[in-house]
Amino acid sequence: SNSYSKGEQEKIKDIPNFDISLKKSNKEEETPQDPIKWFGVMLVPQSLKTAQKHFQGALYLAVKIANVQAQLTKVTSQSESLKLLKKVAI
Known about the structure:
Elements: H1 6-13, H2 46-89
Protein backbone atom coordinates (compact mmCIF):
# COMPACT_ATOMS: atom_id res chain seq x y z
CA SER A 1 0.00 0.00 0.00
CA ASN A 2 1.12 3.59 -0.57
CA SER A 3 0.63 6.82 1.34
CA TYR A 4 -1.33 8.63 -1.38
CA SER A 5 -4.99 9.54 -0.95
CA LYS A 6 -7.47 8.47 -3.60
CA GLY A 7 -7.47 12.00 -5.07
CA GLU A 8 -3.68 12.07 -5.25
CA GLN A 9 -3.67 8.66 -6.92
CA GLU A 10 -6.06 9.98 -9.57
CA LYS A 11 -3.76 12.97 -10.21
CA ILE A 12 -0.76 10.68 -10.54
CA LYS A 13 -2.61 8.66 -13.18
CA ASP A 14 -2.91 11.87 -15.27
CA ILE A 15 0.88 12.10 -15.66
CA PRO A 16 1.93 11.05 -19.17
CA ASN A 17 3.86 7.80 -19.16
CA PHE A 18 5.75 6.65 -22.23
CA ASP A 19 6.22 2.95 -22.91
CA ILE A 20 8.87 1.53 -25.22
CA SER A 21 8.35 -2.14 -24.50
CA LEU A 22 8.32 -4.37 -27.54
CA LYS A 23 4.82 -5.14 -28.72
CA LYS A 24 3.87 -8.45 -30.30
CA SER A 25 2.05 -8.21 -33.59
CA ASN A 26 -1.20 -10.16 -33.97
CA LYS A 27 -0.33 -11.22 -37.49
CA GLU A 28 2.42 -13.69 -38.25
CA GLU A 29 5.21 -12.15 -40.28
CA GLU A 30 7.94 -13.90 -42.22
CA THR A 31 10.53 -11.16 -41.77
CA PRO A 32 12.42 -10.92 -38.48
CA GLN A 33 11.46 -8.01 -36.21
CA ASP A 34 15.05 -7.43 -35.13
CA PRO A 35 16.65 -5.27 -37.88
CA ILE A 36 20.09 -6.67 -37.10
CA LYS A 37 18.87 -10.05 -38.40
CA TRP A 38 18.34 -8.52 -41.82
CA PHE A 39 22.06 -9.08 -42.38
CA GLY A 40 21.80 -12.79 -41.65
CA VAL A 41 23.14 -14.70 -38.68
CA MET A 42 26.75 -15.15 -39.79
CA LEU A 43 27.34 -11.74 -41.39
CA VAL A 44 26.60 -9.50 -38.39
CA PRO A 45 29.75 -7.87 -37.02
CA GLN A 46 30.11 -7.72 -33.24
CA SER A 47 30.46 -3.94 -33.43
CA LEU A 48 26.98 -3.70 -34.97
CA LYS A 49 25.50 -5.81 -32.17
CA THR A 50 27.27 -3.64 -29.60
CA ALA A 51 26.05 -0.45 -31.26
CA GLN A 52 22.49 -1.79 -31.26
CA LYS A 53 22.68 -2.57 -27.52
CA HIS A 54 24.06 0.90 -26.77
CA PHE A 55 21.30 2.52 -28.83
CA GLN A 56 18.61 0.48 -27.04
CA GLY A 57 20.09 1.51 -23.69
CA ALA A 58 20.14 5.17 -24.69
CA LEU A 59 16.55 4.97 -25.93
CA TYR A 60 15.46 3.37 -22.66
CA LEU A 61 17.13 6.16 -20.68
CA ALA A 62 15.60 8.85 -22.91
CA VAL A 63 12.12 7.47 -22.26
CA LYS A 64 12.84 7.20 -18.54
CA ILE A 65 13.99 10.85 -18.52
CA ALA A 66 10.84 11.92 -20.41
CA ASN A 67 8.70 10.17 -17.78
CA VAL A 68 10.56 11.88 -14.92
CA GLN A 69 10.27 15.23 -16.71
CA ALA A 70 6.50 14.73 -17.11
CA GLN A 71 6.19 13.93 -13.40
CA LEU A 72 8.30 16.96 -12.48
CA THR A 73 6.14 19.22 -14.65
CA LYS A 74 3.00 17.90 -13.00
CA VAL A 75 4.38 18.33 -9.46
CA THR A 76 5.63 21.85 -10.27
CA SER A 77 2.20 22.78 -11.59
CA GLN A 78 0.51 21.39 -8.49
CA SER A 79 2.96 23.27 -6.26
CA GLU A 80 2.24 26.56 -8.03
CA SER A 81 -1.50 25.95 -7.69
CA LEU A 82 -1.13 25.32 -3.96
CA LYS A 83 0.95 28.48 -3.54
CA LEU A 84 -1.80 30.52 -5.25
CA LEU A 85 -4.47 28.94 -3.04
CA LYS A 86 -2.41 29.73 0.05
CA LYS A 87 -2.09 33.39 -1.00
CA VAL A 88 -5.82 33.65 -1.63
CA ALA A 89 -6.61 32.05 1.75
CA ILE A 90 -4.44 34.55 3.64
